[in-house]
Amino acid sequence: MATPKVVKRICQSAVLVSLISVSMVTGIEPAGATVYNMMKPVYHVYIDGSNIGTIDDKEQLKEQVDKIKEEKQTGELTLMVENDLQIVPKRLFQPSYDNEETLDKVADELTFVAKGYELSFENESVGIFSSESSAKDALWVYAKPFLSDDKVKEIESKIDEDNEKHPADYLELSSDLFIEEVEAKKHNVLTEEEGVTQIEDGYLKEVEIEVSEDETLADLADEYDMEEAEIRELNDLAEDDKLESDKVTVLEEKQFVKVLETEEVTKDEEIDFDTETTKSDSLLKGKKDVTQTGEKGEKKVTYSISRENGEITNKEIIKEEVTKEPVKEKVTIGTKEIPSKGTGSFAWPAVGGTITSKQGERWGSFHKGIDIAGVSDRTIKTVDNGTVTAAGKRSGYGNQVTINHNNGMKTTYAHLSSISVSVGDTVQKGDKIGVMGTTGKSTGVHLHLEVYKNGKLENPMDYL
Question: Which fold has domain 203-254?
Fold first, then answer.
């Protein structure tokens, strides 16, 4: 015979089956409530897999956890539940609860640990921060100096539009960024400043390198900024062991991450003009005549510039627009040879003027040449073709030029204020060789001209 409890359960089951049957056959919910609504919720609480009791409202558990957390909270680090805390809901017709006892057990058995946020790049950890925002702040401070002003402004404008985002969320990085919740101890949590320094310093990684026969441990220690003892320990080398392998493990400095940026920059640039050269036998050799002056053009050039940590790694032109065409320069080059041999017929060496002093006795000495003054233009010209053999200062003569006409004749021009030719130059009859002056032993502005034939002094009057 069934016990009273069993009978009660059988009756409840019969009612339940009856209600379900009515609903299925008629499609009409039973009067008052559905079967589901006739059942009441109960929440089983589990800590680390063990059922510690039941409660009728899961919000009570949340409030209890928050209360305990607040009581234990110290410092900036956020606390998180260390245990595996689970709530399993059920619905029963007549559930029983033990709210107070269950919540007391939660207070007794629940443990907390400090929660930190570990910043890492492709499994290389920078460190733990007190918050996700603090980790991103450190990254942004590190990255900002490597970015162009335009990029910084662009990111900051996006932040104004989306307050939920952090500037670091818009960075383009060489390695994937990870920020994960981890258990933290107060002494190993980085400040923002420490985090920036850590990212800048990078980390050490074991790498295998090839060494040459003549390399020593001292050489490797110096190159990789290590102690010899460190290298020995990494490679299981005894104190007296020497390098015998061609491969050795060392610690190499690595960067956590590089800040990448690609920007388009448009610049105004000049276009060089071309020069078109033609030759002319009507122009003396060595002379040139610009018949059309060249002008540089202008263009707008758009570059795509890629940078890593502020250093340009690639620059290419993506657009180019000419805004002003260059003007070609046209130059005529002389090919006419200047004869270095005199014609034997002298031209007047000045622009106008008269002879103010002849060759002969003068003031108690012999005047070797003639003096010409009273000119309309102080230009001094060569009397015939020839080669310059002297051009410079000479005692008594001041600035003087001597020309060998390569036919036995030679002429000297003295007291010039300036000289327009150099030794070795070939000159043609009538070419400018200087400017009339009063240098040297002179009583006024004039040209002193001397003429020689086969080394013998001649009277210039006989040739002019």
Answer: Membrane-bound Lytic Murein Transglycosylase D; Chain A (3.10.350)
Cα–Cα distance measured from residue 25 to residue 13, given in angstroms and rounded to the nearest whole number = 18
Query: Which residue, among 429, 430, 427, has the nearest Cα to 379 in the 3D structure?
Result: 430
Q: Which residues pair with 271 in a beta bridge?
A: 297
- Has residue 237 got a pLDDT over 90? no
Least confident of 69-73, 114-118, 409-413, 439-443: 69-73
Which CA distances in Å does 412 have to 113, 334, 393? 107, 28, 12
Q: For 238-296, how does the pLDDT look when each residue is reduced to its tens digit (9 = 90+)? A: 887 777 777 899 999 999 999 999 999 999 999 999 999 999 998 877 789 999 999 99
**Is the separation of the CB atoms in 354 and 372 below 8 Å?**
yes
43: how many CB neighbours lie within 10 A of its CB?
20
Return phi, psi of residue 234, to 5°. -65, -30
Distance of CA 222 to the CA centre of its chain: 30
Instruction: CATH number for 351-462: choose from 2.70.70.10, 3.40.50.10540, 3.90.1150.10, 2.30.110.10.
Output: 2.70.70.10
HSE toward the beta carbon, residue 254, CA cutoff 13 A: 17
Angle between helices 58-72 and 99-109 (to 10 degrees): 30
> CA-CA distance, 305 to 147, in Å (whole number)?
12
200: which residues sit within 8 A by CB, 6+ positions away?
142
Q: 263-336 belongs to which CATH class? A: mainly beta
Does the predicted model carry a pTM greater than 0.70?
no
pLDDT digits (tens, 9 = 90+) for 175-191: 999 999 988 887 788 99
In whole angstroms, what is the distance from residue 408 CA to residue 387 CA? Answer: 12
Residues in the chain: 464
